[in-house]
Design a protein that fits this description.
- The complex is a heterodimer.
- By secondary structure, chain A is an all-alpha fold.
- Chain A has one domain (3-91).
- Chain A is 76% helix and 0% strand.
- The longest helix of chain A is centred in the middle third of the chain and has 47 residues, at 43-89.
- The longest helix of chain B has 21 residues, at 2-22.
- Chain B contains eleven helices and eight strands.
- Chain B has a domain at 31-149 and 166-181 and 248-337: Rossmann fold.
- Chain B is of the alpha/beta class.
- The two termini of chain B are 25 Å apart.
- An eight-stranded mixed sheet of chain B has the order 2-1-4-3-5-6-7-8, with helices on both faces.
- Classes of the chains: A mainly alpha, B alpha/beta.
- The A-B interface holds A 1, 4-9, 11-12, 15, 23-24, 26-27, 30-31 and B 5, 9, 12, 20, 23, 25-28, 204-205, 207-208, 211.
Chain lengths: 112, 337
């Protein structure tokens, strides 16, 4: 697989994890809100359950946020590794100022 | 490994190719003519080198959704293009493209590609015969429409002044469609209905499933109603039926059209209902006013088999001017069927 496609695959995996995490987080929070809504309808439990709900949402969002941050970090590291591999595979650039020693093939037979 | 990788990339392009293109992802396939797995450079000298035995008769083969030009190959590696080259002196060109892009976008790209081919072709062109399989047939029709309607076309080495038009369509006298859903594919329309129902259910998990279903590419969605122009896509929201016979872009009158359809079952009602398992017979043979000889219904052939079957080739060869012989020399010994 060429480097362009490897980079594309890396970007696609990062996009899938990013968008997938966000979509699952949205579903998670929506589903979790249902029992909290029931609890908040009961007057003695309304205030404490509201506080617990806020704390719970902050914790859930924090976990999903950490997954997204980790995903981006892994993506950057993978990009750096691809860059490094690409530089290693690329032929060294010719230095116009450098003198090159003649190889045996460059030397005329009469000079041997 | 190479072919499997290319197939995997083609499937990915078919599924989410529009997203890959929009995000400039390196996995997005650019439309090009391929020969031996490598893209052809569409410049006169390069083409002359790559195709030293190029002839004036060009067969342009356009594959379907989620596949590459390998879909055309028989078990022994031959394909309709190479057989046409042997039997009738055609030079085959295999188009590879991102089948996830909207069909009108691929049509416009194919229009530009064929104009570039004509401009760079190393010998005088006698004829271009486009052969489209499945979605490829719709891309061909869209390219024909784009060629008919564009104002300025690509030119030969134009600098400064407006380039002279390169009318590739003028070289086309016949077009062949193999398993092409001219009236759309009901499976995609059914998927559209299911996605709408899922969206309507007031449940976040069900909606997530609907959103995932809606991620399918523009190309796949265009297959539902065989949308050839961007304008055609606007009518999509109104139609959730399983059949849409109101196609707004007719087949070009100045070209002779030939249609091949497959049917898994011989019984008429089963053939009508299931077609080749993907495309109904009514959609694959939809060509108002076409002569009976221009339409072939081949019983026992699935959608995939249509891309590489001796019965299909026999018809293609006959329609391209070959003798209607019954046999193809290597058919039996190579075990094509």
């Amino acid at each position: 697989m060429d480097v362009k496609r490897v980079r594309g695959l890396r970007a696609l995996v990062e996009d899938v994890v990013e968008h997938g995490t966000t979509a699952v987080e949205r579903v998670h929070l929506t589903l979790a809100a249902r029992p909290f809504a029931v609890l908040q309808a009961i007057p003695p439990l309304a205030a404490p359950s509201r506080d617990v709900h806020v704390a719970y949402e902050a914790w859930v969002s924090g976990v999903y946020g950490m997954v997204r941050v980790g995903n981006r970090v892994v993506g950057r590291v993978a990009e750096a590794v691809i860059d490094l591999a690409e530089r290693r595979e690329a032929p060294p650039a010719a230095d116009p100022g450098a003198r090159t020693l003649p190889t045996q093939m460059d030397v005329a037979p009469s000079q041997l | 490994m190479g072919q499997k990788l290319e197939l995997a990339v083609a499937i990915l392009n078919g599924a989410v190719g529009d997203y890959l293109h929009r995000t400039e992802n390196g996995l997005a396939t650019e439309m090009a003519c391929f020969m031996g797995g490598a893209p052809l450079v569409l410049e006169r000298e390069a083409l002359a080198l790559a195709l030293p035995s190029a002839t004036g008769r060009i067969a342009v083969l356009v594959h379907g959704v989620m596949c590459t030009e390998d879909i055309w190959a028989f078990p022994d590696g031959r394909d309709y293009g190479s057989l046409l080259a042997r039997d009738l002196g055609f030079t085959p060109l295999y188009v590879r493209y991102n089948s996830g892009l909207a069909i009108p976008d691929n049509g416009e790209a194919l229009d530009r590609l064929l104009a570039a081919v004509v401009a760079a072709w190393p010998v005088p062109i006698e004829e271009i015969v486009p052969i489209g399989y499945s979605m490829g047939g719709l891309v061909l029709r869209s390219a024909c429409h784009a060629a008919r309607t564009r104002d300025v076309t690509l030119g030969v080495g134009g600098t400064g002044a407006a380039p002279p038009p390169v009318d590739w369509l003028a070289h086309v006298r016949r077009a062949i469609y193999v398993g092409t859903p001219h009236l759309g594919a009901p499976m995609e329309r059914l998927g559209r209905v299911v996605a709408r129902i899922l969206h309507a259910v007031p449940d976040p998990t069900t909606r997530l499933v609907a959103q995932i279903a809606d991620l399918r590419s523009h190309g796949v969605k265009d297959l539902g109603d065989a949308d050839l122009r961007h304008a055609d896509r606007k009518r999509r929201g109104l139609n959730v039926g399983l059949r849409d016979a109101r196609h707004p872009v007719p087949l070009l009158a100045e070209i002779e059209h030939f249609l091949v359809a497959g049917a898994l079952y011989a019984e008429p009602w089963l053939a009508t209902l299931l077609g080749d398992s993907i495309v109904p017979v009514s959609s694959a043979t939809a060509g108002p006013g076409l002569a009976a000889d221009n339409v072939r219904l081949l019983p026992g052939l699935s959608h995939m088999a249509l891309a590489h079957h001796p019965d299909v080739y026999r018809n293609i060869r006959m329609w391209c001017g070959g003798a209607p012989e019954d046999t193809i020399p290597e058919e039996k010994e190579a075990g094509w069927t």
